Amino acid sequence: MMALLRTEAVKQARRPRTWVALGLMAAIPIIITFALWANPPQLGREGGTDLFYLSTHSGLLLPAAILMVMSRFLLIMVAALFAGDAIASEASWGNLRALLARPVRRERLLGVKLSISVALAFLATIIIVVTALVAGVIAFGWHPLDLRPFAPAQSVGTLLGHLGIASGYIAWSLTSIVAFGFMISTMTDSPAGAGSAAFGLYITSSILDNITAIGVIRNVFPTHYIDKWQSMFTDNVASTDMARGALLQVGYIVVFCGVAWWYFRRKDIMS
Amino acid sequence: MVTGAATLSDTSEPDVGEIVVSARGLSKRFSSAVLAVDNFDLSVRRGEVCGLLGPNGAGKTTTLRMLLGLVHPTAGEMALFGQPVTPGAEVFRRVGSMIEHAAFVPYLSGLTNLRLYWEAGGDRFEDADVETALGVAGLGDAIHRKVKTYSQGMRQRLGLARAVLGRPDFLMLDEPTNGLDPQEMKAVRQLLRRVADGGTTVLLSSHLLSEVEQVCTHAVVMDRGRLVKSGTVAELTQSAVSAYVEVDDPDRAITLLRGVPGVAEVVHDGAGLSVRLDGIERWQLVDALVRAGIKVATVTARHQLEDAFLGLLGEETVR
């Protein structure tokens, strides 16, 4: 198991696409920081107290602000790309048959590929947070937040704690998308198709979630609770919706990974 | 070679070698309309170099994929070295394979591809026969280049290198000379003879009958998923004696030979005639021509396996 994990990790580490995707995760926070530093937002200009306004008063809040925008599009897209690529890229190269002609159990390969996909999605989140934190502290300083009455006061420790929880929550919220992309990846030889399907799930879920008329059904969409971490920074309150969101992911992971496992074990490897 | 009656635990023939590959009643149906392999029996013993022959769509590659656990059979049973074939089975540690065109991770070097392929199975690269593999690949410094820069021939050679990396007891190759130039094809034939001499059993799928004739000790002919015939190459070609003759009057010779009992077929073939014999010897053919006053410039035996193959497929079509 460890040998297979190591070989798969080496494959990802040496893949130019991995570096481009993770490099993008590092570059965008720097660009956003520079833009904020060059043109700081004014209170109320964007329609209220938002995270970007708060982050110009403490660099410790900048990672949260950047996570907020990146977790709505680019981070999801990168996670979907990694997941969709997992099995389908090996199949598209024709290398899957060579790999499975070795004494490598399919379940084991699935487990390793899924672990690598999840690890890359988590790594992408960590890179955003760390880059934004460094850039934020350099641009706006290492301060507690005290902007009462516009926002509750938060110490450096509280801010760092919230940042850690938010990062973990966002990374965990990606797992249903990753699991879906991974499931499709076992079914197709097209990595782009599998990645697109995963991103499509996110888009579809987000669109449906905006239709309030469909009521409580929205509560089971995988993206329904994805932004619920933001109250920790704006209101200094950890919403119970975060726990619901985290639990909801488990259901999707079990279903999508279960289907992937069932399908891949029975699949005829033709490519 | 034993087929048909051979069983997975057949021990009734103690004078022959260990059964390396054994398949009985193997079938694969991809859909209601596509029966790729139909009740196919196969048995390959240690030390044999067995050619798997058949036209396109005969089911050769599907059979090899089933033997590697890549494709699930619809019916039947199969074993390698007496152990049932299941996906990812430990017995694959003793098997080297190349199915269809050789494929690799394109952005990694040839050497890294070999290393990762080998280590994925939990083995140490240092324990592999890297020297032989690199010799087979014959890529020189290009082994450190990314595979995506390789030509098809280079990839194919790297695929063969990957197949022999673990000093396999059993080598399964699907069209191994595809994409190779004549010199490289010759090198592959020499490699196969060398590994066979070293005791490795080989199952080789190929559409190049001359290649099979030169390399294989045994052959299995399949068509439309079914076993047509199997045996030693000598047995298969025995019933298909043919000759190439060059004469001074080909048209008259054709008319004459078509009336000679024991001549199955006569056709123009370049400057001469290709004659398939069924019951007479080549000297009798020459005798008939000379007696008719036709001058014979050349007589050579040729394309024996090809004739046998075409004859067998012809019989199968008639059936």
Please give a structural write-up:
The complex is a heterodimer of chains A (271) and B (319). Chain A has 271 residues and is mainly alpha-helical. Helix content of chain A is 69%, strand content 3%. The radius of gyration of chain A is 20 Å and the shape is globular. The two termini of chain A are 24 Å apart. In chain B, strand 12 and strand 13 (272-277) form a beta hairpin. Chain B has helices at 60-67, 110-120, 130-137, 152-164, 182-197, 209-215, 233-238, 250-257, 282-291, 304-318; strands spanning 19-29, 35-45, 49-53, 75-80, 83-84, 95-98, 170-174, 201-205, 218-223, 226-232, 241-247, 263-269, 272-277, 296-301. Chain B is globular and about 70 Å long. In chain B, helix 6 packs across helix 10 (304-318). Chain B has a six-stranded mixed sheet, with helices on both faces. In chain B, strands 2-1-4-5 form a four-stranded antiparallel sheet, covered by helices on one side. Chain B has a four-stranded antiparallel sheet with strand order 12-13-11-14, sandwiched between helices. The A-B interface holds A 3-4, 6-8, 10-11, 14-16, 90, 93-95, 97-106, 108, 265-266, 268-270 and B 30, 65, 68-72, 87-93, 95, 97, 99-101, 103-108, 112, 116-117, 119-123, 162.
Morphology call of chain A: globular
Give the structural class of chain B. Answer: alpha/beta
Taking the alpha carbons of the first and last residues of chain A, their distance comes to 24 Å
Would you tell me the overall average pLDDT of chain A?
A: 92
Chain oligomer state: heterodimer
Radius of gyration of chain A: 20 Å
Number of helices of chain B: 10
> Quick one: which chains have the greatest interface?
A-B, 30 and 34 residues
**What is the string of SSEs of chain A from the N terminus onward?**
HHHHHHHEEHHHHH
| Distance linking N and C termini of chain B | 24 Å
Low confidence ranges of chain A: none
Strand order of the largest sheet of chain A: 1-2
Task: Give the strand tally of chain B.
Answer: 14
> Biggest sheet of chain B: strands, sense, closure?
6 strands, mixed
Low-confidence runs of chain B (pLDDT<50, min 5 residues)? Answer: 1-15
Number of helices of chain A: 12
Query: Average pLDDT of chain B, to the nearest integer?
Result: 86
Instruction: Walk across the major sheet of chain B and give the strand order.
Output: 6-7-8-3-9-10
